[in-house]
Amino acid sequence: MIKKDIIFFIILLFSFTIINPLFAEMKSLKNKKTNVRLGPDITYPIKWYYKSKYYPVKIIDKHYNWRKIRDFDSDTGWIHISQLSNKKTVITNRKNVLVFSKATIYSKPKHKLDQNISFVLERCKKKWCMVKNGKIRGWIKKSNLWGDF
């Protein structure tokens, strides 16, 4: 009986370590400048800072009011929850991404973008998302985006 309990516990623990990253929560940065720290407290030094509002990040760990995040480049660090937003955002995941006026490659291209341009997500269809930021609004293929859609 004890062996069955131990085996069940090991299987349960293993399943959580496999499944948990698949359901990681996505957030976005609330401010134009956001500090990322080495640890979950203001006493830890700043590793770097983001200079982009609405940049999407994946929550990979929690410690009280701090969240460990991972970004598109797989960089990790700690951010206070006051700096995070629930707004659904995306970034371009490669260079030369085209923004179209309609959700088809046969519509007129409006802009050509670099990598890591952040957008607020308005809505998505099967293969396309309508995005906007302060300067640009249009449709981008999902395969050219990283974030919460």
Describe this structure in words.
The protein is mainly beta and 149 residues long. It folds into two domains: 2-85, SH3 Domains (SH3 type barrels, Roll), CATH 2.30.30.40; 89-147, SH3 Domains (SH3 type barrels), CATH 2.30.30.40. The protein has one helix and 14 strands. It has one helix at residues 2-19; strands spanning 25-29, 34-37, 46-50, 56-63, 66-70, 76-80, 84-85, 89-92, 97-100, 109-113, 118-124, 128-132, 137-141, 145-147. The strands form four sheets. The chain has a five-stranded antiparallel β-sheet, with no helix packed on it. It is elongated and about 55 Å long. The chain starts with a helix and ends with a strand. Mean pLDDT is 89; it is low at 15-20.
What's this entry about, in short?
The chain is mostly beta strands and 149 residues long.
CATH class of the largest domain: Mainly Beta
Distance between the termini: 45 Å
Unreliable runs: 15-20
Order of adjacent strands in the largest pleated sheet: 6-5-4-1-7
Counted up, domains total: 2
Question: What distinguishing features does this structure have?
Answer:
SH3 type barrels, 2 domains, 45% strand
Write the layout of secondary structure elements.
Blueprint: H1 2-19, E1 25-29, E2 34-37, E3 46-50, E4 56-63, E5 66-70, E6 76-80, E7 84-85, E8 89-92, E9 97-100, E10 109-113, E11 118-124, E12 128-132, E13 137-141, E14 145-147
